[in-house]
Amino acid sequence: MIFNIKAKDAQTKARAGTLITDHGEIETPIFMPVGTVGTVKGVHQRELKNDINPDIILGNTYHLYLRPQTNILEQAGGLHKFINWDRNILTDSGGYQVYSLSANRKIKEEGVKFKSHIDGSYHVFTPENVMEIQRTIGADIIMAFDECTPYPCYYNYAKRSMHMTHRWLERCLKHLEITPFKYDYKQTFFPIVQGSTYKDLRMQSAEYIAGVNAEGNAIGGLSVGEPTEEMYAMTEVVCDILPQEKPRYLMGVGTPINILENIALGVDMFDCVMPTRNARNGMLFTAHGTININNKKWADDFSPIDEMDITFVDLEYSKAYLRHLFTVNELLGKQIATIHNLGFYLWLVREARKHIIAGDFKVWKEMMVKQMDKRL
Length: 376
Known about the structure:
Elements: E1 2-8, E2 15-21, E3 24-28, E4 30-32, H1 45-52, E5 56-60, H2 61-66, H3 70-76, H4 79-83, E6 88-92, H5 95-100, E7 105-107, E8 112-115, E9 122-125, H6 127-137, E10 141-143, H7 155-177, E11 188-190, E12 192-193, H8 199-212, E13 217-219, H9 228-239, E14 248-250, H10 256-264, E15 269-271, H11 274-280, E16 283-286, E17 289-292, H12 313-316, H13 319-327, H14 331-358, H15 361-372
Parallel strand pairs: 4-15, 5-6, 6-10, 10-11, 12-13, 13-14, 14-15
Antiparallel strand pairs: 1-2, 2-3, 7-8, 8-9, 16-17
Helix pairs in contact: 1-14, 6-7, 7-8, 8-9, 10-14, 10-15, 11-14, 13-14, 14-15
């Protein structure tokens, strides 16, 4: 993997860069649509490529391991071929999903024993087998196996968990050395900074992760319920320590405002289920604020969904029609909203990039944050 920084903003810590893997070029800052089980929910690959147009999408190790299972993915030639996607893919390691199964898992030094949410069967994730699973899935960027601590979290628990995540990282690295690539392209490995919302732990973890000298680094354990001010404070602490010349990925973040504020702190890569999940519930993100399309006020509003015309759905359908589709629980409504929201998120990070390069990112960011912080 090659990462080059093209421009830095003079008034913030925002950067515009280019990340190159064997599956092509990724312009940063970038938002990665979440394709949990090998699909960005409700979106055809043609729409994903031609209309939303991300350079990279995300897959989930936990879900893909359970279904369709790694043997199917290996027979297909990896996830790229299985889903017919010739651009980049990043997989998380399953650590967050294991965290979210709090009632159905046991965490020990060896790894995590968990119960499948599908059929109740028991499975074990260790740093070693998670590396093997991600080799088989075949993502371009793969993540270390970590423990994502809850919020709020006692200091001593966060400290113990952070040190275990560091020990697990060493095991991941050792196992990758003896586990060859499965397909005809290389994979890049990112370790993950933890430490909950404790500044001293975040600093320790960031210094430890920086010392590993991986090709890129991730920040985990945020956007799990903490106030946004704490998220920003921890991100800033970590970004000031992680190497400047390497990409930084903030996992699971967030709202459009969260993304802009974290770009300003030096983050390059984001993912979140928010644009797709909220779309399925009728929430649309726009440059002028959010729309709850279920509200009665849209019932006779025949204006386009979004006059900015970012994706084909924005002018093709009216707000009144989209509200009607939600009212009658028509699946097309969820699809239209999903395409709109993902298109908007990709537009947002690409506009951020343009303004970083142009040198007026801070002014534009502050204007956008005010505009988007409204309910329409």
